[in-house]
TrEMBL record:
<dbReference type="GO" id="GO:0003954">
    <property type="term" value="F:NADH dehydrogenase activity"/>
</dbReference>
<keyword id="KW-0472">Membrane</keyword>
<dbReference type="InterPro" id="IPR001694">
    <property type="entry name" value="NADH_UbQ_OxRdtase_su1/FPO"/>
</dbReference>
<keyword id="KW-1278">Translocase</keyword>
<dbReference type="GO" id="GO:0016655">
    <property type="term" value="F:oxidoreductase activity, acting on NAD(P)H, quinone or similar compound as acceptor"/>
</dbReference>
<dbReference type="GO" id="GO:0048038">
    <property type="term" value="F:quinone binding"/>
</dbReference>
<feature type="transmembrane region" description="Helical">
    <location>
        <begin position="6"/>
        <end position="30"/>
    </location>
</feature>
<keyword id="KW-0830">Ubiquinone</keyword>
<keyword id="KW-0520">NAD</keyword>
<keyword id="KW-1003">Cell membrane</keyword>
<feature type="transmembrane region" description="Helical">
    <location>
        <begin position="80"/>
        <end position="99"/>
    </location>
</feature>
<dbReference type="GO" id="GO:0005886">
    <property type="term" value="C:plasma membrane"/>
</dbReference>
<protein>
    <recommendedName>
        <fullName>NADH-quinone oxidoreductase subunit H</fullName>
        <ecNumber>7.1.1.-</ecNumber>
    </recommendedName>
</protein>
<keyword id="KW-0874">Quinone</keyword>
<feature type="transmembrane region" description="Helical">
    <location>
        <begin position="194"/>
        <end position="212"/>
    </location>
</feature>
<feature type="transmembrane region" description="Helical">
    <location>
        <begin position="249"/>
        <end position="268"/>
    </location>
</feature>
<comment type="similarity">
    <text>Belongs to the complex I subunit 1 family.</text>
</comment>
C-alpha cells in the first residue's frame, strides 16, 4: 500500500478528531449564547472576552473532575458506554466529504477518510450503533431514572431510524449511488440541480428524523432533563459524561453535513465558493438545532412513535412510490 496514502489517512483522522472535538466545545458556547439571546439573557460573559474562555474552563472541569463509579453498577459496561457514543460519532465521519479536493505542493488531498460506494449507508448505520451507548449506560447504572432512559431509547430507536432510511430511498433512486461524493456530483450543475427541489418531502422527513437521531429538542427523550434528571447520564461524572456530550454535538455537525450534501448541493463543483457555501449550510443547520431548542417543548415518547409510524412513514412510502412512477415515465 502507498505510504503517502497511509500518512494522509492518519493525518485526516487526527485532524477530524481534533477539529470536531473542539467544535463540540464551541458548540456548547454558541448554544448558550443563542439560547440566552432568544430568552433575553447574556449567557457566558465573565470568563474571557464575551465569555469565550468558558469553553476552556468547562473542558478543564471535565478533565479534572473526579471520575465516580457507583458501587452497584455493572462496571465494564458502565465504563465502555460513553466510549461507544463518542467513537461511533467520529467513525461516522469517515465517509463524509467535508471539503472538495485540493492540491498542496503538487499533492492532491481528498478531504474524506474513505470514499466507499455505500457511504450514506455506512454513516447512518454507524450513527445508529451510537444508540447503544445510552442504552447500555442506562441499563448498567443501577438507577431507575437511567433505566427509564434506556427503555425509552430502545422504544423510540426503530421509529426514527425507519424514517431516516425511507426518506433517503427516493433521492438515492434518482442518483443511483450510495456514495456521498456521487450524490454531491449529481448536483454539481448549480442551485437548480439541488435534490431538495425534486425531493422536498424527503428533505423535510430526513430533517425531522435528524432531530431524533441526534437526540435534540423536541425529541430530547432519551435524556429528558425535566422528566428523568439526566437519563442515562445521571450516574456519570467527569470525562465519561463529557464523552456522551462530545458525541451528541459531533453528531449534530456530522448530520448537518449529510443533509447539506444530500439535499442542498454539498460543495457543488468543488470551487472555493462551493466549499464556503457548504460550511454556511452546515452552520445554518447547526443553528436550527439550537433555535428549535429555544422555541419548542419536548414531546412524549408515545407522541414521537405516533408521529413516526402513523404520519411520517406513510408519507415516506408514498413519496417513494411517486418517485418510482415519475422515473418510469
Amino acid at each position: 500500500m502507498d505510504v503517502a496514502f497511509i500518512i494522509e489517512t492518519i493525518v485526516k483522522i487526527v485532524v477530524i478528531l481534533l477539529i470536531f472535538s473542539a467544535l463540540a466545545g464551541l458548540g456548547t458556547y454558541f448554544e448558550r449564547k443563542v439560547l440566552a439571546f432568544m430568552q433575553r439573557r447574556l449567557g457566558p460573559m465573565h470568563v474571557g472576552p464575551f465569555g469565550l474562555l468558558q469553553v476552556a474552563a468547562d473542558g478543564i472541569k471535565l478533565f479534572t473532575k473526579e471520575d465516580i463509579i457507583p458501587q452497584n453498577v455493572v462496571k465494564p459496561i458502565f465504563k465502555i458506554a460513553p466510549v461507544i457514543t463518542a467513537a461511533t460519532a467520529f467513525m461516522a465521519s469517515a465517509a463524509i466529504p467535508f471539503w472538495p479536493q485540493f492540491t498542496v505542493f503538487g499533492y492532491t488531498v481528498h478531504p474524506i477518510v474513505a470514499d466507499i460506494n455505500v457511504g450514506i449507508l455506512y454513516v447512518l448505520g454507524v450513527m445508529a450503533i451510537g444508540l447503544y451507548g445510552p442504552l447500555l449506560g442506562g441499563m448498567a447504572s443501577a438507577n431507575k431514572w437511567s433505566l427509564i432512559s434506556a427503555a425509552r431509547s430502545a422504544a423510540i430507536f426503530i421509529s426514527y431510524e425507519v424514517i431516516s432510511g425511507l426518506s433517503l430511498l427516493a433521492p438515492l433512486m434518482m442518483v443511483g449511488s450510495l456514495s456521498l461524493i456521487d450524490i454531491n456530483n449529481y448536483q454539481a450543475g448549480g442551485i437548480g440541480n439541488w435534490i431538495v427541489w425534486s425531493q422536498p418531502v424527503a428533505f423535510i422527513l430526513f430533517w425531522i428524523a435528524a432531530f431524533a437521531e441526534t437526540g435534540r429538542t423536541p425529541f430530547h427523550l432519551v435524556a429528558n432533563d425535566h422528566e428523568i434528571i439526566d437519563g442515562f447520564g445521571t450516574e456519570y461524572s467527569g470525562m465519561r459524561w463529557g464523552m456522551f456530550f462530545i458525541g451528541e454535538y459531533a453528531n449534530m455537525f456530522f448530520i448537518s453535513f449529510v443533509i447539506a450534501i444530500i439535499f442542498l448541493g454539498g460543495f457543488g463543483d468543488g470551487t472555493i465558493a462551493g466549499a464556503i457555501q457548504l460550511l454556511l449550510k452546515v452552520a445554518f443547520f447547526f443553528f436550527f438545532f439550537l433555535w428549535t431548542r429555544a422555541a419548542w417543548p419536548d414531546i412524549r415518547p408515545d407522541q414521537l412513535m405516533w408521529l413516526c409510524w402513523k404520519v411520517l412513514m406513510p408519507i415516506a412510502v408514498i413519496n417513494i412510490v411517486v418517485t418510482g412512477i415519475v422515473m418510469m415515465f
